[in-house]
Amino acid sequence: MDKNIIKRNDLLAQKVIKGLESRNMSGYYVQTKEEAKDLALSLIQEESTVTMGGGMSVHEIGLVKALKEGNYQFIDRDEMEDKRKAMLMAYDADYFLASCNAITEDGVLVNIDGNANRVSAIAQGPKKVIFIVGMNKVCDDVDGAMKRARNVAAPINAQRFGLSTPCSKTGSCFNCKSPDTICCQFLITRFSRHQGRIHVILVNDTLGF
Fold first, then answer.
1. Which among 4, 35, 55, 168 could disulfide-bond with 158, CB atoms 3.0 to 4.6 Å apart, if both were Cys?
2. Which residues are within 8 A (CB) of 28 and not within 5 positions of it... i.e. 6 or more apart?
3. CA–CA distance, 67 with 71 (Å, rounded to integer)
4. Quick check: pTM over 0.90?
């Protein structure tokens, strides 16, 4: 990565972290995927129950693999026949892992969801939530974050899941009411009432969509 981009991201990350702290959330910044994985593991107690939504960033840093191989009770919904049961188990988990569709420079998290299992667990339930967020997801403000979520993350995810939505065919949001839409629920996390619950690990890399 170009040194000027690294310097810019280093400075921007500190701004985001200050914003998170002002919102009762904890922020961290690392340079590599490996550092992100190690930091996340340091925040997760062994023998604890851990689960996640569909965050690609969590997989990309190798965290899922490490949890499965380590001394943790990892609930993998992809390996469970009863998907609804797996989703419900998330609400009582010790740790919920996620990425976000976008984050603002002043620390607001923006997420959209189809089934709402991910955004509902972020909002309430699991004792702690750990986000893995690439610096590619940082936006100026909530309006920019919403635009990113709807015009970047949503079309790519719709294509990834093979859904028949206007955005999967055109690459941009149509504010549709398609039966396949994944933009059913919008969650804007601007403050955490419970200190120490939400942790955001910013990574100086391009992660997720």
1. 168
2. 17, 39, 199, 200, 201, 202
3. 7
4. yes
